[in-house]
Design goal:
six-stranded antiparallel beta sheet; elongated; disordered N terminus; alpha+beta
Length: 612
């Protein structure tokens, strides 16, 4: 402090010498008026200034204007004369370091601090205090400071920050893509969703023109779908998008940029197309469905389309195909029939699935003779189709409307009647073809060849003759010998041809074949009389057989005869799981199982009469 003191002393002496040299009258005349005027001016400025202004000399507050008192909430009397610590200790967030900052001020020459201030009314305000030395060359002479109440500004800044942060998080998290551009169309911002949809990253796209990134190549508003655009992404993928564009305007209403909001609706569009497709088409065959056909029938039932012809078709043998080969094969039969009818018709013809196994064709501007030619082409195409199961066969009926007065419903009835007449004519031929297909498929699936069937027929016939069976019974016995294992057509190849012992589950599956065969032949009127025999051909005399566990003479006679002949043929021929036995071994095996597995009377007749 000695240094400060010396400086003050020298300055005072210098000032005194100047004053003495000028003389009192000259001093009053030349300097006082100007000084007083400047003082008044400064005091006027201090009073009027909206900024809080104060002065500190040797850590003591020497001056405070009205604005400072109003901002801090204290009277001038309460502030002037207080130590600087009083100012710091009034900070709501007082830090002990604040009391050291005046020393830093003396060293650095300036200091600005932003603090919460405990106002006299109990509220907390944010004050910005800026300290500056009166003399930058001699900070000990004192410090002036200004005070600004920045509470509202800080509140606005915080609100703006939260608003910007809320907007940023919203843009980051929403599923819609958002791109903002400046007034020239240069990209200023992209959110993650827009990056994913377009394939462009914000880092790369910033400053690029919007057309380079938001590359809309087409618009499509067809088929009743929601309006959308087609976007070409960076990797060349086309995406359907729903989009909107809005301008960014300043406070004067001048456009300063644009916001593009869009979302990927490719999956939504695909779902809409699927729903639309299902409303018009049959899912299994790909043809139009009945609902669409009925709508088109009304539309095309006009004089302009005359003559208007209709063809009705019914798939023959679908139920039998489902029972024998499974519904998968039945579906294939329907698909094949649909393909045939679609193939022989024109593009303008309406080919639809009318019902379960029925199809219908609407032929505008087509005469009855031309409709007959279409039916003929369908028939020839069916002849050329080959499949594993039943061949494709369609009963067809047709009719034509030549006058606008003709009732379209009567036209349908006429075509339907013709179709059913044809179905009756073809049914017997179809059943024979079906049985042939079943026998062929059974032979391909198992080791039971045509030779096996012939041997069984011969042995069963001999037993039946020795037992005095009628001609009808012998015919049924012959059918039974050929078709008794027809149910095996539905058993897995891995089970039928397994060389080792069957597992419990495999054995359960194998034991299903009598019931499957029963259902198959029941669906064919010419074979239904042997259904009960097929169902019972694995029953045992003692009741331990399957599937029903019946015993003795409750088992149909023809089933008991077949059981003996089948067992003999099985034992005397090689199988996948064992070698053949000789004749003596087989007869001993039959005798030992007579009365348990086999009817003892039939075993005796077979050994004594047939094998002797």
């Amino acid at each position: 402090m000695k240094r400060h003191y010396d400086i003050k002393k020298d300055h005072a002496a210098e000032l005194r010498e100047k004053i003495l040299g000028l003389g009192e009258s000259s001093l009053r005349k030349n300097y006082y008026p100007e000084l007083l005027n400047r003082k008044d001016q400064l005091e006027s400025i201090l009073r009027a200034a909206p900024v809080g202004i104060g002065m500190i000399v040797e850590h003591i507050i020497q001056e405070a204007n009205d604005s400072l008192c109003k901002i801090l909430g204290y009277t001038k009397k309460a502030l002037v004369g207080k130590h600087i610590k009083y100012l710091y200790e009034s900070f709501a967030n007082y830090d002990c370091e604040d009391s050291q900052n005046i020393q830093q001020l003396e060293e650095a020459g300036i200091y600005t601090v932003e603090r919460s201030w405990s106002h006299s009314d109990g509220n907390i305000i944010i004050v910005l205090l800026s300290f500056s030395p009166l003399d930058k060359n001699d900070v000990s002479r004192g410090v002036t400071f200004t005070a600004f109440d920045i509470s509202e500004r800080k509140s606005n800044e915080q609100s703006l920050y939260f608003e910007k942060e809320r907007l940023r998080i919203t843009l980051q998290s929403i599923g819609d893509g958002v791109i903002a551009t400046d007034k020239d169309g240069k990209i200023m911002m992209m959110n993650p969703a827009s990056e994913e949809i377009t394939g462009w990253t914000q880092h790369v796209a910033l400053g690029m023109m919007i057309q380079e990134v938001f590359n809309v190549i087409d618009t499509d508003n067809k088929e009743g779908l929601v309006e959308h655009s087609l976007l070409l992404s960076k990797n060349g993928e086309k995406k359907a998008i729903a989009d909107s564009i809005a301008p960014i305007k300043d406070q004067d209403g001048v456009t300063v940029g644009t916001v593009y909001v869009f979302r990927d609706i490719t999956e939504e569009k695909n779902r809409q197309q699927e729903i639309l497709w299902l409303s018009y088409y049959d899912k299994l065959t790909g043809l139009y469905n009945r609902s669409f056909f009925e709508r088109e029938l009304v539309r095309l039932d006009t004089e302009k389309q005359l003559p208007l012809s209709i063809i009705l078709g019914d798939i023959n043998g679908l139920k039998l195909t489902n029972d024998v080969f499974g519904h998968h094969e039945g579906d294939k039969l329907l698909q094949t029939a649909a393909k045939i009818m679609k193939k022989v018709c024109r593009k303008e013809d309406i080919v639809a699935r009318w019902g379960g196994d029925e199809f219908i064709i609407l032929l505008p501007q087509t005469s009855e003779s031309t409709a007959w030619e279409v039916c003929t082409r369908i028939f020839h195409q069916c002849q050329q189709e080959e499949g594993q199961g039943v061949r494709t066969s369609i009963s067809l009926g047709y009719a034509s409307k030549n006058s606008q007065e003709d009732d379209i419903m009567q036209l349908l009835k006429k075509a339907e009647d013709m179709m059913y007449q044809q179905k009756l004519l073809e049914s017997r031929s179809l059943r024979n073809t079906t049985i042939h297909s079943i026998k062929r498929t059974l032979s391909e699936k198992s080791y039971e060849t045509d030779a096996h069937a012939e041997r069984l027929k011969e042995m069963c016939e001999k037993i039946g003759i020795f037992m005095g069976l009628s001609e009808i019974q012998l015919y049924e016995l012959e059918l039974l010998a050929v078709l008794h294992d027809i149910g095996k057509i539905a058993i897995k190849d891995s089970v039928l041809q397994k060389s080792g012992r069957l597992t419990e589950d495999e054995w359960k599956e194998m034991k299903r074949h009598p019931e499957i065969g029963y259902r198959i032949v029941q669906s064919v009127p010419e074979l239904s009389q042997i259904a009960e025999y097929i169902l019972s051909h694995h029953e045992r005399w003692d009741g331990s057989g399957y599937p029903r566990g019946i015993e003795g003479e409750n088992i149909p006679l023809l089933s008991r005869i077949l059981a003996v002949a089948d067992a003999y043929d099985a034992m005397t021929n090689d199988r996948a799981y064992r070698k053949a036995l000789n004749k003596d071994e087989v007869m001993n095996e039959l005798r030992s199982n007579a009365g348990t597995q086999f009817d003892p009377n039939i075993v005796k007749i077979f050994i004594d009469k047939v094998l002797s």
